[in-house]
Amino acid sequence: MRIGIAGLGKMGAAIAARLNEAGEEVVVWNRSPLKAEATGLRVAATPRDLAEQTETVVSMLFDSPALQAVFYGESGLLAAARGKLFIEMSTVRPETQQALAADVQRAGGTFVECPVGGTTGPARSGQLLGLAGGEAADVDRARPVLERLCRRIEHMGPVGAGASTKLAINLPLLVFWQSFGEALALVRHLGKDPAWLVQLFAETAGGPNVLKVKAAAVVAALSGDPSVAATFEIDAMRKDLRTMLEEGNLHGIPLPVAAQTLVAFDEASVAGLGGRDCAYMPAYWAEKRLGDGPEPQAVAASVTF
């Protein structure tokens, strides 16, 4: 099977590499051609060219405007959609996926949404959590590709159900990073080693799986290491929080914890941490004092507990 990958951000690149290593023939397209060429895989000139060269197209894009730019227009994926299967993995609102699905179907293609839980490490090892939305027969058609990428695939319902679930599972994760920073701030006066503290929190009832997985990155951030590779950037988390709030507003659902978390993340971004890994969020907040404004150097020095 020849599979196209549209979008080579961190997750798109990891998915392309995983499928290639699994023996699939992979063609890639990215807005920046240099990033596409760096993969060493066959490169399509345009999204339309990508669809024309492949049977299945997997898209992993940053937000709704990026989806519009890639799917629509004379050079977009929709221009060559007839007979193709599209697996859309971006984290966007359900209504965005539903509108896109309708347009793909009108163009003669098949559409399945499958946003995923997990970052680049699980993507490279085929251990993502797939949250699929679409007709049962269409999801079954997508399974051979998804099974290369996911340890578990859940068919959540029609198109839009996957997007709803992805926003839901991300909310407690994003809130955790802020709450963990606040928790660390409460014990910084004890003078404990950051690595010891992270291990202690990981063993408590409130320690989520992500703290075990990201322990080394969190310790490095707390210790002042500025070079932790970003697997989930603070600015991407801000985008997800805004998307959650938009969805909550649409349905009349108050999300006060998500709203306040976004305020904190916005401050960290203003302080220059937007492109940093999520591990830097607790490091930033652990050094906060009442009345402090954004401090770009907040994680430049080692955090002392």
UniProtKB/TrEMBL annotation:
Q: Report if keyword Lyase is assigned.
A: no
Gene Ontology MF: a single term: oxidoreductase activity
Which residue range or ranges hold the 6-phosphogluconate dehydrogenase NADP-binding domain?
2-157
Q: Where is the active site?
A: K166
Please report the stretch or stretches of sequence annotated as the 3-hydroxyisobutyrate dehydrogenase-like NAD-binding domain.
160-279
State the protein's name.
Answer: NAD(P)-dependent oxidoreductase
Keyword list (alphabetical) reads: NAD, Oxidoreductase, Plasmid
Name the domain of life this protein comes from: Bacteria
Stored InterPro entries: 6-PGluconate_DH-like_C_sf, 6PGD_dom2, 6PGDH_NADP-bd, HIBADH-like_NADP-bd, HIBADH-related, HIBADH-related_NP60_sf, NAD(P)-bd_dom_sf
